[in-house]
Specification:
By secondary structure, the protein is α/β, with parallel strands linked by helices. It has a domain of 214 residues: Rossmann fold, CATH 3.40.50.2300. It is 29% helix and 13% strand. It has a ten-stranded mixed sheet, with helices on both faces. Strands 21-22-24-23 form a four-stranded mixed sheet. The longest helix is centred in the last third of the chain and has 17 residues. The radius of gyration is 25 Å and the shape is globular.
Length: 723
């Protein structure tokens, strides 16, 4: 399996002679102006086309253009007809179909399944411009328009639905999106390496449905080919003695490297039923058989088991292929893609982006573009492994960093080219603000490790936590001529930050615009252990540093903590204790939203099955997980976060009495809610939560807070989230 061929080492396709397009064409007229008679690849996306490296269609389009291919864009087509899919003609090679930077269901619906009125990735923030399950619908329309044109699907929606998955919006387990879309190939994760290889091979005459040896791809087979050893993981072990079996989740580990079970000492060993693997059989010819779609749809225990197996096979250094039966077809998942090197990352971000929306939109406002137009993405990936978040599942645990020179060049390009720039860089970040250049101290250990997180239940001793490269980058960026300030708006992993006081000093002194958002997520051990998040004591350590360095800098600055309501494993008592913590610390919730079960997440498996896939899955016993699912239960959890809102007081008074905590009802400082009710309050029905926007990542719902002593309102959530 070709795995790590350099991204820009392919011989360029003959169409390179047409040169670089000012914008990738969205119409026949633009194609004519470029001298094109056809497109080699047509990208269909649910987002407005913004030619900027924070937008997936721009990265993929410009990357394929650099390989010599002619790429057209069909942006937010009217899916009620096949006609918009004929606009650019039939692609010579294939349609590349994506829902956009966000999952279409998360984009369209709130955590309470109510339709959102707006869409930050659409001109003028207009809602309703993309269909539900956009990858499926777009694929159907493309097939209707051009029945013989190959279809390759990708992006976050396809990536997180590559396997049988629980779908929150229909409340059922759905098949792999590859089957429902009738696509020929699915590419998951940040798929640059896979897409370049596939495109060149299709140009050489192969059909996408016949390409089975590319990492990061999902395809259909009738049966497992000869020569493969199948590890049977279609069930959990029954109680009683069994003969010792080779553990498919453990690998030969160098000194200091933990297997998945050793690394998570608080987690009992996973239960499994495997056949032995012949000694000396190559790992790359081994496939793990998951419970079939029909099994996981009917049996929550097997769904939780399959979820654990899937997440343990995500390290590109040791992951094996997975196969899951769907009816009479095998859905085959190759191991994840090899991460991009720093030179490859630099080359991708140095491509000739126009750094603006397509001119077809005129002066229309595109909120997602406005949010990132003065920001720079410095890295990819996240090794935090938070169970509710899709970053790790989509981008992987290995951090892929750009070089300092490439980042500084982009800052200068923003300064010199982007209209409206006032000297303030709004962000130097990515999925996490402070994982830049952090990695395992030993590449061999990194390749062998099977931990689900490098920072839970504690920071791994093999993880390099030196922030000096990031501190140096911040200082050089703010020293550039014409740069007045560099802000950090991406989420900060504060348990890592406290390991580097010099980083915290630099951040607090120069890069905070009055407020810094971080996400403890909760205060109680029950939900935190199901999230794989550090205890609230780590937040206290960071807050002490933040306050001290703010005083030393002579600045009045505030931390804005974020919390999740109704996360699996959260009880009413947990939410009550969180509300009391908020009251003691003088915080009042600005916005409140609840946990949203996104496809494929470990927390979603907890929500759906009531089992904890972080621990061994058993038919009897095991770690059972309660989730607040009903509307009233979820309203109560959100009400605890807004304990100060009179509209919530009747609900909270009833709950406190039921919980035996009527002592918290009264008019004193020690009480949570007063005993009186202001006239005209307490009758309003629950309203939909507001939505923040996050470029390229699956959004988990959060609660924004502000200090009661804070003189200004807390800002809305921006790109990135705090850890």
């Amino acid at each position: 399996m070709e795995s790590d061929k350099p991204l820009f080492s392919y011989r360029k396709y003959w169409a390179e002679r047409f040169g670089v397009a000012p914008f990738l064409p969205m119409s026949r007229q633009e194609m004519d102006a470029l001298g094109w008679d056809s497109c080699d690849v047509i990208i269909v996306t649910g987002d407005a086309y913004v030619d900027h490296p924070s937008f997936g269609m721009a990265i993929i389009g410009r990357l394929l253009e650099a390989q010599g291919f002619r790429v057209g864009i069909i942006s937010q087509p009217d899916w009620r007809s096949a006609e918009p899919f004929r606009e650019l003609g039939r692609p010579n090679l294939f349609f590349g179909i994506t829902a956009g930077n966000m999952d279409s269901m998360v984009n369209r619906y709130t955590a309470d399944r109510r339709i959102r009125r707006n869409d930050a990735y659409t001109p003028n923030d207009e809602g309703g411009k993309r269909p539900d399950r956009a990858v499926i619908v777009y694929s159907q329309r493309a097939r209707e328009a051009w029945p013989d044109a190959p279809i390759v699907i990708g992006g976050i929606e396809a990536s997180l639905r590559r396997i049988a998955h629980y779908d929150y919006w229909s409340d059922k387990v759905r098949r792999s999106v590859l089957l429902d879309s009738r696509a020929d190939l699915l590419l998951f994760g940040n798929a640059e390496r896979a897409l370049v290889e596939v495109t060149h091979r299709v140009a050489a005459g192969e059909h996408p449905r016949d390409i089975h040896d590319v990492r990061g791809s999902v395809f259909l087979r009738d049966a497992v080919p000869a020569g493969w050893v199948v590890i049977d993981s279609t069930d959990v072990d029954a109680p009683g003695p069994v003969d010792p079996q080779p553990d498919p989740y453990a690998s030969a580990s160098p000194s200091g490297c933990a297997s998945s079970e050793e690394a998570q000492a608080d987690q009992p060993k996973v239960v499994h039923l495997q056949r032995s693997v012949p000694r000396g059989h190559p790992r790359e010819r081994t496939v793990i058989r998951l419970p079939a779609y029909e099994q996981v749809r009917a049996d929550p225990v097997l769904y939780a088991h399959a979820s654990r197996v899937l997440h343990l096979e995500t390290n590109p250094g040791n992951a094996r292929a997975l196969v899951q039966r769907h009816g009479d077809k095998e859905v085959w998942l190759n191991p994840p893609p090899i991460p991009l090197t720093t030179p490859e990352m630099d080359a991708v971000y140095d491509l000739p982006y126009a750094r603006a929306p397509h001119p077809a939109y005129g002066g229309a406002r595109i909120p997602a573009w406005e949010m990132i137009r003065f920001s720079v993405n410095i890295m990819r990936g996240c090794f935090g492994g938070c169970t509710f978040c899709s970053i790790t599942e989509h981008e992987g645990r290995i951090i892929q960093s750009r070089s300092e020179a490439s980042i500084l060049r982009e800052v200068e390009e923003i300064r010199d080219r982007v209209d409206g720039f006032t000297g303030v860089i709004s962000d130097l970040g990515g999925p996490t603000a402070n994982m830049y250049r952090l990695a395992c101290k030993d590449p061999e250990i990194e390749r062998s490790c099977r931990r689900l997180s490098c920072v839970y239940p504690g920071i791994c001793k093999n993880l390099n936590t030196d922030h000096s490269a990031l501190v140096g980058l911040y200082r050089k960026a703010r020293a550039l001529p014409g740069i007045k300030k560099v802000l950090i708006a991406s989420g900060l992993r504060y348990d890592l930050a406290v390991e580097s006081p010099e980083y915290v000093r630099e951040l607090v002194t120069h890069h905070v615009g009055g407020y810094l958002k971080i996400a403890p997520e909760h205060t109680e051990e029950g939900p935190l252990s199901r999230m794989m998040k550090p205890g609230i004591g780590t937040y206290d350590r960071f807050k002490a540093m933040f306050d001290r360095f703010s005083r030393e800098a002579g600045k009045e600055q505030y931390l804005i903590p974020y919390f999740i309501a109704a996360h699996p494993g959260t009880t009413d008592e947990d939410m009550l204790n969180l509300a009391l913590w908020l009251k003691r610390n003088g915080f009042r919730a600005d916005q409140v939203q609840a946990f949203l079960p996104g496809p494929m997440a470990l927390a979603t498996a907890m929500w759906h099955t009531g089992r904890n896939p972080l621990r061994g899955i058993r038919r009897e016993g095991g770690d059972r997980v309660h989730s607040a699912k009903g509307l009233r239960a979820r309203r109560l959890h959100k009400a605890f976060l807004r304990y100060h809102d009179p509209e919530n007081w009747p609900l909270l008074r009833d709950a406190l009495k039921r919980m035996g905590r009527a002592d918290l009802i009264g008019n004193g400082k020690r009480h949570l809610v007063p005993s009186f009710q202001p006239a005209g309050t307490g009758r309003r029905s629950e309203t939909p939560g507001k939505r923040g926007t996050k470029g390229g990542r699956f959004k988990t719902q959060h609660t924004g807070l502000q200090s009661a002593a804070s003189p200004r309102k807390a800002p809305r959530s921006r790109r990135g989230r705090s850890g």
